[in-house]
């Protein structure tokens, strides 16, 4: 919850600080209070680098976090912990007497298992399904988070100057069209922050009730059914601005915001149900033996971290290829939707059966 709240605040902050000369002309504009060089266009470095201010503020916040971590955060591993009085600068290591041969042998026998052996020990018939589900879930949701701002910030146009072939028609068809919504960074960040805040409220007040009524697996399957629908209809947002470089008036503008709200709202609702459900299912798949749940959680974090890297990379490549070929929905239809459908099928066919099987009494 705390990390999600930070993401919402970060989105809002990034949008507010982007293009500061336009957003805050009284401070950074031509007659702004911070325009000490009296430049005609505004603060010079902000004019040349309109998106540098969010990065500068982000770097400052990271520096504060690093200082707090170094000065006050306590080590959780006992063998790596420092002295309580703060005088210890080196990790504590166990010492043994060299004259005691049996102690030396027993010490080497009780060494900690390697990382690979720890990972392999967590891969069982009960932990594999939720791990694969978490991987597939993060694979397409991370790509959505990366591609959507690119898509809705792309200028709206009846054609794309990046088309690699000259035979593309300027008239949109059911599957061949391009362009975006021409939204500013400020509008994008505020809109995403609003739905992120609504997602937090849903997770805190509504999700527990739905979980008790539908069960964790049922709620997870419901969320997986929403994702493909969102990915299939998202590219068609471009048609609301087709042929209009400035759609700030009329019914087209109203319908554009309604459609965008349906897409982002559906994704937020599905994410709010899927992420905590996946975490609960992964935790319940581990046995209650000492240290097993911690290992499963570590492996789960590794799996989701890998998916969060692969997802945006593959999605970005597919999106760029689709824009060049005049099919802006290529990444949505042939990557995100396919992965989402695969995740739903995997959960229904395999993961649900696993949780219907009884757990051995020894593992309870």
What does this 3D model show about the protein?
- Keywords: Membrane, Signal, Transmembrane, Transmembrane helix, Transport.
- It comes from Neurospora tetrasperma (strain FGSC 2508 / ATCC MYA-4615 / P0657).
- Residues 1-23 form the signal peptide.
- InterPro entries: MFS_trans_sf.
- The chain crosses the membrane at residues 51-73, 131-154, 174-202, 214-234, 254-275, 296-320, 332-355.
- This protein is an all-alpha fold and 364 residues long.
- It has two domains: 2-80, no CATH class; 122-363, Up-down Bundle (Growth Hormone, Chain: A).
- It has 13 helices and no strands.
- Helix 1 packs antiparallel against helix 9 (185-214), helix 8 packs antiparallel against helix 13 and helix 10 packs antiparallel against helix 11 (251-285).
- The chain is globular.
- The two termini are 28 Å apart.
- The relative contact order is 0.13.
């Amino acid at each position: 919850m705390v990390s999600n709240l930070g993401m919402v605040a970060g989105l809002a902050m990034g949008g507010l600080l982007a293009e500061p000369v336009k957003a805050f002309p009284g401070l950074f504009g031509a007659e702004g209070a911070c325009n000490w060089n009296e430049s005609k266009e505004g603060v010079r470095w902000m004019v040349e680098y309109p998106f540098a201010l969010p990065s500068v503020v982000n770097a400052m916040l990271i520096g504060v976090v690093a200082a707090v971590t170094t000065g006050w955060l306590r080590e959780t591993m006992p063998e790596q912990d420092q002295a309580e009085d703060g005088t210890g600068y080196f990790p504590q290591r166990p010492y043994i007497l060299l004259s005691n041969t049996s102690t030396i042998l027993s010490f080497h026998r009780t060494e900690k298992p390697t990382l690979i052996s720890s990972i392999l020990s967590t891969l069982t018939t009960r932990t594999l399904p939720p791990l694969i589900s978490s991987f597939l879930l993060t694979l397409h949701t991370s790509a959505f988070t990366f591609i959507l701002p690119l898509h809705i910030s792309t200028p709206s146009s009846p054609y794309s100057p990046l088309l690699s072939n000259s035979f593309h028609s300027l008239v949109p068809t059911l599957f061949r069209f391009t362009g975006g919504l021409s939204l500013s960074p400020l509008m994008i960040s505020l809109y995403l922050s609003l739905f992120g805040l609504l997602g937090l409220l849903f997770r805190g007040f509504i999700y527990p009730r739905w979980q008790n009524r539908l069960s964790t697996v049922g709620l997870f399957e419901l969320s997986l059914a929403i994702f493909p629908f969102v990915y299939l209809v998202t590219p068609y947002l471009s048609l609301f601005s087709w042929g209009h470089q400035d759609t700030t008036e009329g019914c087209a503008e109203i319908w554009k915001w309604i459609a965008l709200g349906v897409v982002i709202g559906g994704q937020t609702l599905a994410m709010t149900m899927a992420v905590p459900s996946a975490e609960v299912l992964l935790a319940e798949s581990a046995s209650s033996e000492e240290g097993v749940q911690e290992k499963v959680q570590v492996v789960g974090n590794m799996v989701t971290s890998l998916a969060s890297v692969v997802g945006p990379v593959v999605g970005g490549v597919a999106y760029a290829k689709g824009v060049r070929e005049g099919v802006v929905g290529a990444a949505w239809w042939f990557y995100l939707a396919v992965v989402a459908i695969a995740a739903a099928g995997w959960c229904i066919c395999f993961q649900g059966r696993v949780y219907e099987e009884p757990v051995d009494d020894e593992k309870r």
